[in-house]
Amino acid sequence: MSVKYIPVQWVPTKYVYDAVLLVCVAVYILVFLRLGTPAADFTRPVDGAILRMRAFGTCAFLMLTLILCIGPLAQLDRRFLPLLYNRRHFGVLTALVALTHAVYVLNWYYAFSPTPPLEALFYSNTSFGQFLGFPFEAFGIFALVVLGILAATSHDFWLAFLSAPVWKRLHLLIYPAYLAVVAHILLGYLQDTKNPTFALIAGAGALGVAGLHLAAWARRPEKQASQEDWVEVPHWREIADGRARIVSLGGDERAAVFRGGQKLSAVSNACAHQNGPLGEGRIIDGCITCPWHGFQYRPGDGCSPPPFTEKIPTYRLKLDGERLFIDRNGYPPGTAVEPLAIPEGALR
Amino acid sequence: MTERPDSFFIGWAPPPRRLRGFLIAVVLGLLALFALTSYLTAATQDDPGDGAFRFDWGRETVVGVLQAEPYPVLHVLESERFGQGQALMLSGFGKRGVQDRGDPLDGKVVEASGVALKRGALDMLQVRGGAEGLGPLEGREAPLPPVVSLGRWRITGEICDGKCYAGAMRPGQGLAHKACANLCLIGGVPPVFVATDDIEGQRFFLLADAEGGAVTEAILDQTATLVEIEGEVTRRGALFVFNIDPQTIRLAQ
Amino acid sequence: MPMDILDIAGIYGLLGACVAVVFLLWGIDRVDPNARGAWTFRPLLVPGVVLIWPLVLWRWWRISRGETLGKRHRPPRLAQDYLALALALAIPVLLVAALLARQNGPYERPAVMLEGPAAEQDKSAQ
User: Fold this and answer.
1) How many Cβ contacts (< 8 angstroms) between chains A and B?
2) Which residue of A210, A275, A313 is in closest CB contact with C87?
3) What is the pLDDT of residues B40-52, one digit of tens each?
4) ipTM confidence
5) pTM of the entire structure?
6) ∠ CA B8-B9-B10, rounded to 5°
């Protein structure tokens, strides 16, 4: 593909997606400050800065919790996929909301002191040896730095430049970051508020993330029976025309077995662009089409049709009686492999 | 067939028409979730108490005897606002104490001026800079009230910085505020023990070590949580001091 | 110690800023043909370069040596699965610990007198 980079590739779907996000954040902050707080039972009002750090902090937690839910939700129910595709914008907005929270904290709790705020942040609480009273700010700082890195490297350029696997590894930092956010809240505001409502909300959110990830873990593709280098492709007769079945080849490798008419071909499941799941795509105009960004490959050799130059690995297939097998040793990207013809009557 | 043929679409393309209803439901659900979470979180915030800067009182000028140890406290002789004999803890601007200004004036009659902070029976004066804020009143002498021991006690409560708790911040206590409390204490603001029970009607105690000196360094790890401490309670005029043994501080279970 | 952390962060950021200038004005055209002639998106990359400049330099070096496409099709799927599992298991543990430690006040704990006041009532200040 050859497209000049622009700051943000806007498409109508993204406008809608981002508008919904912005409205949600605005609703959260406004409801917090204008409706919820006046309903609270205060002798004298809470400081404005503290209200805002609570509003933005809890909003960022809700947003991050939802972001973490989207992945497993989309795995469990494909109707959630539209939420997955524009998750990057969700992440960037979350980083900004979290940063706003941090700025309020820094300019209030760490201000008005002879010690500069950033220095105070690191040495005013050093009770690292205890659970209650632990400097929970440290978890927040870590999470904020991670969110910053992820937001700053969310442009398409970074994917191409770092390569999808390195980019993905970097962005796996979201898992430790979320755990840090949970710890930040559990050792901070959850201990601070005596009313149990926030503890219930925060606990439900974090447990929701944990539960969805466990459910998705239970549903991940199983390792298939194999004869040395040949791995069985289960239920291959159920593959619809133009669609694929994803096969785990052990370790990080997955292949997608596509059926085009009466022929079967196997390619890497990871798109060369962003490692999108090709096996969730379909064959359009004779080409395997990635569901993430529409990158296309010919089933016969894993090459993008000219003038594009992307290539993905291909795999050998063989039929052994009723059973279909795939050679776990893939060919180098772009190697031509003769598609396997499905014998007459094999598909009922 | 497990796949429905029309469930495919490319990420950046508009979602298929048959998903519209589902997605609209998701959007409405999200809006409701944001609004509800926000409302519940905000409406159940704890009461930060009635502490406040009393800017509405204007600038207070107080004449009194200054006690510099463990932290500067003024025993009032003359004031329009405060009764004679009342004890006023002193602080500087922001997260600063006035130890260096108070030390040379120990036991002397001084004139202090600044803004008052008040929370229940806890009074503090944030003094202005320079000699106008805290200076000796020449030609006048008065004794400090005597120290009376009230015995050795085990008391449960929270170690706070006297200024935020008195109303410089609302809320000015609790774990989310711990770093700020420590910063105040390090800056020289007097530490105050807010007890869960009263002794002779008093719930606020200025903290000192067993010898009656400053105790800030020893308590920074135990601020902002509910703790149990042993020590001698003394009264000097209207000022209650908890002379603690820092080794006895334990988390209250 | 805290000053050291801030100093290190400052130096890291300064080096990052230098790398960002060189990379965005000069290097980027060499590592990605799609960036040639595209200028408006470059300011967006500045924070990223400043934050992860060692990684930028490493990739720049690898690409300039004509790196092979070797593992481009091997996303870290196992790592992701196990990280997600670890997260799912750690959250409940942390939650239970935090709820057990939580001090659910307000408490009304009576103060306990351990010893009566000393006989001599007046022990004026040292």
Assistant:
1) 221
2) A210
3) 999 999 999 999 9
4) 0.93
5) 0.91
6) 135
